[in-house]
Design goal:
Layout: H1 4-29, H2 41-48, H3 50-77, H4 84-120, H5 125-128, H6 130-165, H7 171-192, H8 199-219
Helix pairs in contact: 1-3, 1-8, 2-4, 3-4, 4-6, 6-7, 7-8
Length: 225
């Protein structure tokens, strides 16, 4: 339907759209669920703001679907190139990320359901157990979130190897992307080990990925012989 220059520009738009949805969800909607610093703050916030939970779920599904379409398209344009097998691995990583993202989104629905149950049994045993319930739900979400981010970093690493190997982008941009993806995975792995995630490790990938999107929108893929 589209030639390589046009469709690769759409690939850049897809990167921007996915980033916008993920950032808005992670750093705006999800961080604003808690309505009180106390034991009930998170789960009651989820119960009192079902529209935010719906928005988080909807944005996550749209972002995952965009990423899956982009990975499938990349397989199509690299089918005759040596990096095709890496494109298949990239598609597999996106499928895995979509499944993990679905579990993470389900945890937000769980927050809302637990909050509804607690609000209907104030003064009962369930309300008294609010702190352990909130801890369980939060750790369930984190237990899925960090591996999900790790898979995202690995898929970004594959993407830059593919684009550089196919000659679609400048080697400098590809090399920076590979380094930034490794930095992101290092930062996320500290979260898996139970430490705080250092945002400094995640920032390079954001900058390079944004640069890649703008590059593609402006110039599209190179077309090497």
């Amino acid at each position: 339907m589209f030639g390589l220059p046009i469709s690769s520009r759409l690939f850049g738009v897809g990167i921007l759209a996915g980033y916008a949805l993920d950032i808005a969800s992670n750093f705006w909607l999800q961080s604003s669920i808690r309505i009180d610093p106390g034991a009930l703050g998170l789960i009651q916030g989820a119960a009192a703001q079902p529209e935010k939970i719906a928005a988080i779920v909807g944005m996550g599904l749209v972002s995952g679907f965009i990423a899956l379409l982009m990975a499938a398209w990349l397989c199509g344009v690299t089918v005759a190139r040596p990096v095709f097998w890496l494109s298949l691995a990239f598609l597999g990583a996106k499928v895995a990320a979509l499944g993990m993202g679905g579990l993470e989104l389900a945890s937000f629905q769980m927050m809302r359901s637990v909050g509804d149950a607690v609000s209907q049994t104030q003064g009962g045993a369930l309300a008294a157990a609010a702190e352990p319930l909130q801890l369980m739900v939060r750790e369930l979400r984190n237990g899925i979130h960090f591996p999900h981010m790790l898979v995202g970093g690995f898929s970004a690493l594959l993407l830059y190897v593919i684009l550089t190997g196919a000659g679609f982008i400048p080697r400098l941009l590809g090399g920076l992307g590979i380094i930034a993806a490794c930095s992101q995975m290092t930062g996320v792995f500290t979260g898996i080990l139970g430490d705080e995630v250092n945002m400094g490790f995640l920032l390079p990938l954001f900058v390079v990925h944004l640069s890649l999107a703008l590059w593609l929108i402006a110039k599209g893929f190179r077309e090497p012989a």
